[in-house]
Amino acid sequence: MHKSQNVENKTVLVEEVVRDFDKNEVFEEITAKFTWEQDVERSWNLLVENNGILQHVSQENLEEKGKQKYKKNQVCALRKGIFRHIIILFDMSSSMKERDFKPDRINVVLECVENFLTHFFFKNPVGHVGVVALKNSSAKLIQPLTSNMEDITNALLKERSMGLQGSPSLQQGLEIAHDLLIDIPLYGTKEILIMYGSIRTCDKKNILNILNLIVKNNMHVNCVSIAPEMHILKHICEQTNGSYKICMTKNSLMNEMNNITETPLWMMGMEPQLIHICFPIKKKISTQIMCSCHNNLNTDTYICNFCNSYTCKIPSKCKVCGMHLISMHDLSHITNNLQGSPLFLEIKNEEKGPRVCVSCNKRLYDKVSQCSKCGNLFCLACDLYIHEDLNQCPFCLIQDT
């Protein structure tokens, strides 16, 4: 009797499960999106060229491959150019209206440039950036060399609001960049970054003439493009020992620009010099005082120790005496970048059970990063954070103390 009741109960439960499953299938069919309503997958972005063959890779492998693009083998202190001077040639022609990047090219590139500036000034506190806009078959300086990120972003947004028109002129843009960098002291780098989205350039003169001057004065040109390859851009980058990268996704564009934020090695033509720097005093004044950098009225200001002029933000360069104004925090970032990165070795987890990251307690299964000095194990995320931000193993510091 009990067995027959149990069998009946089981059949009822099975029927209920099947009925619920059918209801879920009907609901999914009703709520399913049409093809034109679904999100864009852009599966072609996961194609990677390997020995002339396009291969499809998963998104996880693509992200993991991108995370490993940093220098693990720099175990000694190297001579670097910490006083960086970069002129950005920004394409603001009609080609930046294209919508192959969502919502459009100009918004994606502006977002990536803002992210680039954040990382650049974090790793290079005494660096300077200027911007030249390329449009209407000409070039225009919209922001001179400065270390103020807000001034740069405001200049870009203001120029964008005036419209994207015409064709870019590489020749005129390179001439303006050359004239700005020619007077840079020999201890500073002279770099040009081209943000390009067109497949043409409209020049009034021979671009090879200005290229010869750039090579003669030891300037380096890097180009990050979201358009098909142009021979002249590739030729310019090769002649100046720079890099020419073509990006098809927003993530690749951001990664390539972040690679440029790394402090470069000592370049040809640079000479070491002793320079004066100041640690200005921050003071809050009851009355408003005009700063020497923007001619704005402020109550919070920094006072230069050399000429007693007022500056609203640091790090910067004093407009009156030309002294470099930095803080102790900025100086620590500079010395940190000059140190050698800790050497981590990638090993396989040979134990049966999972290991644990010593930093975040995350379980480690296949790939494990091990510090060659202290022997501790790290996950890929902590490994990346140590090499890109800390630049030193925290557990090695604990052992040293």
UniProtKB/TrEMBL annotation:
Residues 357-396 form the RING-type domain. One of its GO terms (cellular component) is transcription factor TFIIH core complex. It is found in: Nucleus. Keywords: DNA damage, DNA repair, Metal-binding, Nucleus, Transcription, Transcription regulation, Zinc, Zinc-finger. Residues 85-274 form the VWFA domain. SMART domains: C1_4. InterPro entries: C1-like_sf, Ssl1-like, TFIIH_C1-like_dom, TFIIH_SSL1/p44, VWF_A, vWFA_dom_sf, Znf_RING, Znf_RING/FYVE/PHD. It holds the Pfam family Ssl1. GO terms for biological process: DNA-templated transcription; nucleotide-excision repair; regulation of transcription by RNA polymerase II. GO terms for molecular function: zinc ion binding. It comes from the Eukaryota. A zinc finger (C4-type) spans 304-321. The keyword Repeat does not apply. Belongs to the GTF2H2 family. PANTHER family: GENERAL TRANSCRIPTION FACTOR IIH SUBUNIT 2 (PTHR12695), GENERAL TRANSCRIPTION FACTOR IIH SUBUNIT 2-RELATED (PTHR12695:SF2). This is General transcription factor IIH subunit. It comes from Plasmodium vivax India VII. The lineage of its organism: Eukaryota, Sar, Alveolata, Apicomplexa, Aconoidasida.
